[in-house]
Amino acid sequence: MKTNKLFVFAYATLLTLFLAPYLFIFSQILYTGQEMPVYDNIPLLLTNTFIYCAASALFALLIGIFMGYMLFRVHFPGRKLAKYIAVVAIAIPSHIQISAWIGFFGRSGILTPYLQTILPNFSLYNIYGCIWISAWAYAPLATICCGVMLHNIDEKIEIEATTYRSPIFVFLSVLLPLIKKNLLLLFSCLFFLIFADVKVTDVLGFQNTLTQKIYLLFNIYYQPQLALSLCIPGFVLLAFFIAAIKSLRPAMFHTTQHKFLYHLGKWKLLFVSITFVILCCYWLALPILIYITQSFEKFYTVFQAIDSEIVHSLYICTLSTTMIVVLATPLAWYIKRVPKSFFVTYTVGALLWLAFIPGPIAGIATVRIVSFLSSLPIVGDFFYFCQDTSVVLVWALTAKFLPVGIMFMYFTISQITPRWEILSAIDGHSTWQTFFRVVLPICKRQMAFCGAIIFIFCMGETIISTLVIAPGTTTLAIRILTLIHNGARADLSAASLWFLVVIFCIVAIIFAYNSQNKILTTNRKNIL
């Protein structure tokens, strides 16, 4: 596809718009570097941050490797149902996992008195509790990613190896070496996703991490300059991460339909039992929340108290998700199809950098640039008006999750053969006609799935919402986080259940839409 100058200009303008908050805060750091106070315990913060994020990411990755292998490459009764259960478990965000595990092992948890008789010093409110909850919160994502990696490996290699070796030996000596770079990349992504998520450390009171300290200094202690000084190590870590991704060059596999599945023999019962235990841990939040809610009357009473937060959350997340999907699809298609150049390389690097910006830094950047723009002579009135509305929150969420949507659609478009686009160009269609008449009809199911993922991310984002949201308004995620801090067990469980109800309704609509489109596509092929 030829480079369209108008598209490049519009794309550069759009990317600058979403990079603007972070560039502005970075310029503030450089401009006030000599006057900025320095935090004393930065080595301790970096050490605790690395231990917490690395241990959580490694634990989640190990669970994901085992579950991905069992769900995608091993034959056992109920495998497809278990796979769907693991996929839908991605919809449970970390703050819902926090409320469930606190109900189980918290100070007034169900099992806490029994555990303290065995372990008198048992407590969930330390770094080990943070690692445990974060690992289980991101294990479903690791499961799907590892399963897709294993699913897309050419099965001929495995069939030849299993002629003389056991399935477990083949997995350890053949499959894992093939995807080792992909696993290292996945570990890095999990590391920075956990690094950017402040909810677990905030609720459990573990304040000695970098992002948690930034959030506290800006939002609680009102020391923005000190918070800005702590943003520098975060930027450096992200720069190292992007350089590592560029040097790793993970293996790319084409999607295949596997007919070859392993039969584990005498180990089958043990591994299947472990698989279903892990699936139960994925969904542990649901029965615990139902148990603590106590009654349907409490469930309905809480709904009457939070109905405005539910409506406002749906409004904000729907606007943000629509903007992200509408923008991400053409941008991802353009990045994939345009000839490689410095502009494309810069764009990919900027998107990767944006995708893993921690929530506190994103919130600080948005607040600072809106305050700066509201003081300008020409556009100041407009931004001053938007400062107390939901427009700023939509902008912040779009800037935070647009790179995620672009990367998702990029990998989706990578699976599409460019043959149809070439034929469309031969017929005389322009670039935009090819996109609207060829690419969009092919990608509409993937766009719906991308919208569901982005909607879940937007619904679960609490730190940006807390820092940016207009006075006098709130969202469902902020209400749940407030209830967690206040220790209202029944109200917290009922509000968390309503959060899951909203998420599962969206997921059900997307699944129904995709299933209907799949049926129509199949019928159309049969007719042809």
TrEMBL record:
It is found in: Cell inner membrane. Its main location: membrane. It is a multi-pass membrane protein. It comes from the Bacteria. GO terms for cellular component: plasma membrane. CDD domains: TM_PBP2 (cd06261). Keywords: Cell inner membrane, Cell membrane, Membrane, Transmembrane, Transmembrane helix, Transport. Residues 46-243, 310-510 form the ABC transmembrane type-1 domain. One of its GO terms (biological process) is transmembrane transport. The chain crosses the membrane at residues 7-29, 49-72, 84-105, 125-150, 170-196, 226-248, 269-292, 312-335, 342-370, 390-413, 447-472, 492-514. The keyword Transmembrane applies. This is ABC transporter substrate-binding protein. The lineage of its organism: Bacteria, Pseudomonadati, Planctomycetota, Candidatus Uabimicrobiia, Candidatus Uabimicrobiales.
